[in-house]
Amino acid sequence: MAVQMKYGVEDVARYVLLASDKANHPASNLRLQKLLYFTDGYYMAMHGEKSDLFRENFCAWKYGPAVREAYFLFMPNGADRIPKEQYENKETASFNEATRRYNFISSPWNQDIISENDRGFIDNIVKLLARYDDFTLVDISHDPKGPWANHFNGDSRSIIPKEEIRQYFKGLLRK
Question: Does the pLDDT value for residue 170 go beyond 70?
């Protein structure tokens, strides 16, 4: 059976940011990374084998699991919250052969890319975690028996296998 990967992390990240705003807890890039980790982890645990919310991998970074593609997308914000204007609009680039330049086009991002069921799932995880501050989420993601601890070695390229994340969150659901 092939791995089911419904979305790219960019679309999931944009929806997580929207859900965070709806929960009155706007997210910084640090918080976004933790929310992506918990959302994907619980999603994989609850939806069975070979069912990932997004295709990109987590790396074991200093402040916990992180998805490079999402981090760099919102990196210009530093530690500040990510403003609505930044996640509601999607910028795409196309190369113009005649001028030998890139053209950048901004268009509205459509949340309907994420199915209604998956939006509800993400909303619930974000609401559940809204009571925790960013560094409490970092501490939780640093569980010494968890996937991050098994792969953190100071090298930001260390990938945390999705299957390990799935099994870890399945264990949390049994508790």
Answer: yes
